[in-house]
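> @MW can you paste both from yesterday?
MW: sure, first one:
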Amino acid sequence: MSNYLIKDTRIVNEGQSIYGDVLIKNAIIEKVGGVINTNENVNEINGSNKILLPGVIDDQVHFREPGLTHKATIYTEAKAAIAGGTTSFMEMPNTKPPVFTQELLEEKYNIAHQNSLANYSFFMGTGNDNYDELMKTNDKKNEVCGIKIFMGSSTGNLLVDNPILLDKIFANAELLIATHCEEESIILNNLEKLKKEKAVLEPADHAIIRNEDACYESSLKAIQLAQKHDTRLHILHISTAKELQLFGNMMPLKEKKITAEVCVHHLHFTANDYASLGNKIKCNPAIKTAENKTALWQALLDNKLDIIATDHAPHTLEEKNVSYENAHAGLPLVQHALQLMLYYVQQGKISIEKVAEKMSQAVAECYNIKQRGFIKEGYFADLALVDMNKPQTVTKENILYKCKWSPLEGFNFNASVTHTFVNGNLVYENGIFNEAIKGQRLKFDR
């Protein structure tokens, strides 16, 4: 394993920026800040005019393996993540078959161990008839990121809407529960009503069918269950202003038992974009009106929303280029999520320190991830070096997803990721990958 010395860079960590050097030795950050001189054999990297960030930790991705590998694989999507400065991911259980047993869960870990350039963890899936298997995850609380409950529409039998079962799960789960919150009955009623009014539904109808009330009622239900049983709850991809009244910012993140996430597409797109992008931005929960986007930004900056994720969910263009009702929901984002937030840094919308907090540090705190998410001595060297003056346009030629498309095609970024380190290994440098060493399984300190 090589050792590295990053020289003369801006180091962003824990709400502040300092200038100096960072020494990486045997996968670990050995020293941070000041002028570092060493007699040891190191590879020196010039970090001047660049910014060093903790590697992004994305707590919500869908990498589609096993069973849906025509869309994506753990290898292809993790590689795309690395190119975008994401060094760790947590992947969802709605693969084929769904991850409803401990054996299927470990199979995914084995695939990642062999193929993923990024660090990894996988959620245990919740169905209507796998309660006993689900509870076995309690014995792996330091080995598994959490359990996932779809409290809204999903594929197969991943939807869990039995109130007795939900209560039982919230009462007995000993690790974090992550929920997709949309109220199925409201969605179905909205759909039925709209079908009576229109002969053909359009992509813009998605925000009407999956409206604010559907999100709010389901999030409220999840929070009430968590409060009843004092359960650690994390609500994924908040998309509405109405839901924000359910969350607080009066205590530090480490003390919160109920946390919330916002995704980059809900911070970037609005319902107006259906006109140009159509089914490409069809996703669940839906991208909604500009008023919701404005409220989400404010809540993010005010710490009512705790982390930023992607909900990276690739589908083929063939699965998108069909009628609205038949189009698959989800969009690929993990390669450009950090670049998108850096764009908003340059727009004056958010500080670079806040980006590092919400995409790395807060994720590590939220999930109690061991030795990651910070640029601190003794922590794993998961790092992204960015050049704020290196433009890149998103094109089909530089998209690394297996699906080979992005809703951001044609977008011009002013900043680029130049280097990505995973466990001290320089895995990506200016478009070149080193695939000799794979990522590691995330560990949790619970």
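MW: second:
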Amino acid sequence: MTTHRKSNRRQFVGGIAAGSAAFMLGHSEPAAGYTSANDRPVFATIGLRNQGVAITNKSTKFADFAALADVDSKVLGTNVEKLEQRQGKKPDSYSDYRRVLDRKDIDAVMIATPDHWHTKIAIEAMLAGKDVYCEKPLTLTIAEGKLIEQVVERTGRTFQVGTMQRTESGHRFLQAIALVRAGRIGTVKKVTCGIGGFGPSPVIPEAPVPAELDWETWLGPAPKVAYRALPEIRKGYGGGVPLYSNCHYAFRNWHAYSGGKLTDWGAHHVDIACWAIGASETGPSKITPLNYAFDVDYDKSGNPTVDDKYDIAISYNIQADMPGGVELLITNEGDNGILFEGTKGRFFVNRGKIVGKPVEDLADNPLPGGAIEEVYGGPVPENHTLNFIEAINAGKQPISDVWTHNRMLEICHLSNIAMRLDRALEWDPEKREVIGDKKANSFLARKNRKGYEINM
């Protein structure tokens, strides 16, 4: 596939109505901007547990998958077989993602590894001429976000972040933004993002590395540590792996690999909150941890004093002072979703519902025609992947671009830093640094382990 590129971070495309409608006809239809079912983009997925499988499965309608990569041979083998059944053609399989990037026939990669791997793979993919769809949260640190921005600018590649609430979830979040923009709650005063939380863990001992897992490569850029796990197996979503470990599903509970719920669900709800209040291109002036708790002790330098228990915060109420005097509260309490409060009313939205008097009033006073499309920037496509493909073909950035994602994710990263250091942080959104706090600024970047550096 040959596509003319132009790097413009202020541009994105919404759904192209004709292209979106064509997909309703079935799997063999061409993707938007393509002339035949045989002229479809060629994708590969790197990282296959949970979200990696989810984004692959919902993309086979629009793209052909030539390869899959994972450091767990069991996960890799299982999903190669499932994908072959799904698309009628067996994808190639690799334990080393770099073999995927070497393939000239692959147009784009979908990255769903643990967070600490995102930046290195994404940058290398763009430098190899691939467009990128990367799961959220995009980065482990604020500095990584800046690096990705630089490479998107340099290469002109299309880069979609997997904050699919911008496109999917029955358009409830788009409706929420449209309500705010239409003044249905007056002037916004407060937005509360309920993101849930992880519980504490027991002591997790060192354990033999599963035979199917390449632990060295799984760690990659992160510090070299022993594999830890307890025998109990997780059930339900993400199941089939140890319930307590420092790997696979449980990686979000460790600062070495992720940022807990703050960068997990926070990456979804804080994103919508910032979009609604018009703060997608700026940031907070201050982050204040009102109250919070860890299950492990932290030293004065902001580091956990033990390495055998989950070290992310297990409860929190964090206030971000946003432009226009809006208070953004991030909490583990209450229902998962977003509560918007203004001078004339309030309403709540999550993936399953949008409720409140301003929503009820729509029966007699509906939003203007095209309000949802105005928020999105055009017709809303069938799903997030389709927006990615349409953006590739238009040579533009998609609805979930790296700049707006990084701006809101900075709030989540700063919240974790504020809790680790036990103090409020004054933030300069222009310089993108903490004001007058050398220690806090030292947390904005992390050095990759030797052999896993990012080469640009």
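> thanks! The chain has 15 helices and 15 strands.
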